[in-house]
Design brief:
Strand 2 and strand 3 form a beta hairpin. This protein is α/β, with parallel strands linked by helices. The chain folds into two domains: about 60 residues, no CATH class; about 130 residues, Lambda Exonuclease, Chain A (Alpha-Beta Complex). About 20% of the residues are buried.
């Protein structure tokens, strides 16, 4: 079976970068200890230690992808071979798509950046590919539209999800830009999605009509609107610089993914 060459999408870099490859620091220390004993330093190795040493050497010399990365490769291969795509439809994702431009405009207004445009260009190199949300002169931006105020990281000091750091590093690598900003925004939910979510909540509750009166709906609508939150508090950004070492790390993992995918198609 022939497939196109594997390149990791920037939004999925975190999926193949998670987990350890090769020896852990403890295993590496143990390997050195056993090698020294095999070379005559200290007590001779026992038969069990000889087996342990051979296993550690094999793990060092034959690095293997973590389970999560293997799982991603299998999913990618199914899409590549047969043209299937996963259905990620949900009200949360639908909202993100529906209000993305509003989110970009809010970021521009709060930070006084002038006019920001949604980027539609697609970029790639030998190892990764992607479409950044916004390319703002010397900064690449990714806009995350939170579903509600409870999923919005208003008071967080650290990036909520490490995979987003990898995503922005990938964009900076593709564009040759040295600074990135992950911008969370809090935007009103469009009414069609509000009604869809309330319908879902109704059925999840067991569909007891007496509990879902018009007054109940009216009381819940404010949860989807954020007019009472100052605009400057409806944008939360995490900025960071480009780390050149990621190029080698991502390239290495992509190469391992390609080799693993090749074993699946034999």
């Amino acid at each position: 079976m022939e497939t196109k060459e594997f390149k990791i999408s920037c939004h999925a870099i975190g999926e193949i970068m998670a987990g350890e490859i090769g020896l852990t620091p403890i295993q590496d220390s143990r390997l050195n200890e056993l090698i020294e004993r095999r070379n005559g330093v200290g007590k001779p190795l026992t038969p069990n230690m000889e087996i342990e040493l051979d296993k550690l050497i094999d793990k060092r010399d034959n690095p293997e992808l973590p389970k999560g990365a293997k799982s991603y490769c299998k999913t990618w291969l199914k899409k590549s071979l047969f043209g299937f795509s996963e259905n990620w439809k949900s009200v949360v994702i639908d909202k993100g798509l529906a209000v993305e431009v509003d989110g970009i405009n809010l970021v521009a207004e709060v930070y006084q950046l002038g006019e920001l445009s949604k980027n539609e260009d697609w970029f790639q190199n030998d190892f990764c590919k992607g479409t950044p949300d916004v390319i703002d002169t010397e900064t690449v931006r990714d806009i995350k539209c939170s579903w509600d105020i409870f999923t919005y990281p208003m008071f967080d000091d650290e990036l909520p999800k490490k995979e987003y750091w990898w995503q922005l590093q990938g964009y900076m690598w593709l564009l040759g830009i040295k600074k990135a900003s992950l911008d969370y925004v809090l935007i009103d939910t469009p009414m069609p999605l509000v009604l869809l979510d309330l319908k879902k909540l109704y059925f999840q509750s067991g569909g007891v009509a007496d509990d879902w009166t018009p007054d109940r709906y009216e009381a819940m609508y404010p949860n989807y609107r954020f007019d009472n939150v100052p605009k400057e508090m409806r944008v939360k950004s995490f900025t960071f610089n480009y780390e050149p070492w990621i190029e080698e790390q991502i390239s290495y993992r992509v190469d391992l993914c390609r080799k693993y995918i090749a074993t699946l198609t034999k």
